[in-house]
Design a protein that fits this description.
Layout lengths: L12 H15 L2 H10 L5 H23 L5 E3 L3 H13 L3 H19 L3 H7 L3 H22 L3 E4 L3 E4 L5 H18 L5 H15 L25 H4 L5 H26 L7 H22 L4 E3 L3 H6 L5 H10 L2 H10 L3 H16 L10 H17 L2 H18 L8 H15 L2
Antiparallel strand pairs: 1-4, 2-3
Amino acid sequence: MDFFKLQENKTDIKTEVIAGSTTFMAMLYIIPVNAFILSMSGMPYDALVTATIFMSVVASILNGLWSNTPIAMSVGMGLNAYFSFGLVKGMGIPWQSALGVVFLSGVLYFLISITPVRRWLIETIPVDIKRAMSAGIGAFIAFIALSQTKMIVADSSTLVHLGDFKDSGVQLALFGLVVAIFFTLKKVKGAFVLSIALTTLVAWLFGMAQMPESLLSLPASMSPIFFKLDIASALSLSMLPLILIFLFTDMFDTLGTLSGVGMRAKLFDDKGGSKALQRTIEADAAATVLSGVVGVTSTTSFIESAAGVEEGGRTGLSAVVVGVLFLLPLFFLPLFKAIPPNAIYPILIVIGIMMFSEIGDINYKDDATKYATFFTVLGMPLTYSITSGLLLGALVYTLVKVIKGELREISPAMLILSLVGVAIFFVL
């Protein structure tokens, strides 16, 4: 296993396998969720299940082998909803043409990724802003989990309020959260996987989830969506803004994820960090190009990789384990579908708490950092977008520096992010 430089990264095979298994369990929700969202565009659900699994396998293994980082990849949330409800249903664009948009944005993304531009952006963002990104992603992850478990629910008057703790589903999630916190505080190896397994068992025993009637199933064919993209129809001036939206959203979602998770695990801090970062970006971009061909939206680095990082994952072996494990749902889908979501989401709350702790190391004596941190951390969960929170923070950071006459202190990366924010919020 010298290929993954385990000793150099102060880890071992057991730790990496546990980390990869944890990340896999935290990401498992993407299969049914992504398939459901994209099926709203008229694409067949079963084919989308297989395509989502396929991209999760290929992208995660590719990144693990190419960059040797524990960053797992799959079809990103956000753009899949924009694809179905914005492009196809909202604008009446056929899903084949919309896949052409995904493909072309991926090609542009890849061309950018093979230059130092993307890596330079990440490396020149001030360290305290990276800490704010990590905290913001933590808040975002936790908010997703709290809302999905119905611990927090929508309210027409106050936007959100506390859920019904008498509900059995909420109680199951609370049980899972307590178990996850207990195992984590006791520093039990594989705490998250054990928590999911125990919570699932409780759900089965008390009838809150159905045990699988069978274990095996044959994978559905991808042929209805594979290579069905229409590139020609996407090559028009009217499609350019859509291509740019996909490009920018995918780029900056990954920028935020790599900065936040990387900061937490110190993945890109050593002398080889720049190369590892560059290769992670290249793998992400290459997978995005393939996504349009396979029949799904842009692939991205997953914030759930933080779950594996917290379990000690430090190398690409962890990402490879994720990719290999994603083969299982192809044949054991009934078993994985029997795991209740409320057994998985509590793990994301604990991960969110861990990532949010980065906020304590931020230097609040700098006014630009202080204001930018506020908008970044709150922006991500409140806008339901890593990209929006990141760009809001950058805009506020630059604005404060301008007001205080500290123009020379604005890093080029923050200035570029601010300009992109202006373009996305006020033009595109």
